[in-house]
Amino acid sequence: MKAKLLSLLVVLIAAINVMAQDHKEQLSPAEQEMISLSNDKWQWMSDKNIEKLADLFHDTSQFVHMGGYWGKEAELNTIKDGHIWYKKAEIHSQEVKFTDHTATVYSRIHLNSVVGGNEVRFPFIVTEVYVKENGKWKLSSLVFTKTLGE
């Protein structure tokens, strides 16, 4: 009985992996572009690459964190000065929605960061809104919503 249950579990895990891979292959080039841009953003935040982030962030962008919200310059200064250091975003799922010249990326992540000198790890749903201006995507809004769970 244990062997049958174990075999069933292995088959189920394999099926889930195949379905996840099929979903990735079904993404449109535009969806893939937005997911790549979102993933690049997380890496730039981790690397504290202020130059790349300054180019990506829209001049009127808003960033909503657990402790409040602020604009582009405050976010860049917070990252640069190390008040928040986004060390690593473990991305579990991503979805992209388009409306006219706007793209919204919804991500379920675990974010490892250093806040006020303490390393923390929280699960979040992150909503990123990008607008296309002059043929280039700009991040106009980044909202962290803490989730309950691991």
General form: globular
* Low-pLDDT stretches: 3-12
Separation of termini? 31 Å
Question: How many DSSP H or I helices?
Answer: 4
What kind of sheet is the major sheet? 6 strands, mixed
Structural class: alpha+beta
- DSSP strand content: over 45%
Q: Please count the beta strands (DSSP E, at least 2 residues each).
A: 6
The strand line-up of the biggest sheet is: 2-1-6-5-4-3
Order of helices and strands: HHHEEHEEEE
Return the average pLDDT rounded to an integer: 84
What Rg is obtained from the alpha carbons, in whole angstroms?
18 Å
What fraction, in percent, of the residue positions are helical? 40-55%
Using brief descriptors, characterize the structure shown.
globular; 150 residues; 6 strands; disordered N terminus; six-stranded mixed sheet
Structure, explained:
With 150 residues, this protein is an alpha+beta fold. It has a six-stranded mixed β-sheet. It contains four helices and six strands; from the N terminus they run αααββαββββ. It starts with a helix and ends with a strand. The chain has helices spanning 2-25, 29-47, 50-56, 72-81; strands at 57-65, 68-71, 84-99, 102-115, 118-133, 136-146. Residues 3-12 have low confidence and may be disordered. It is globular.
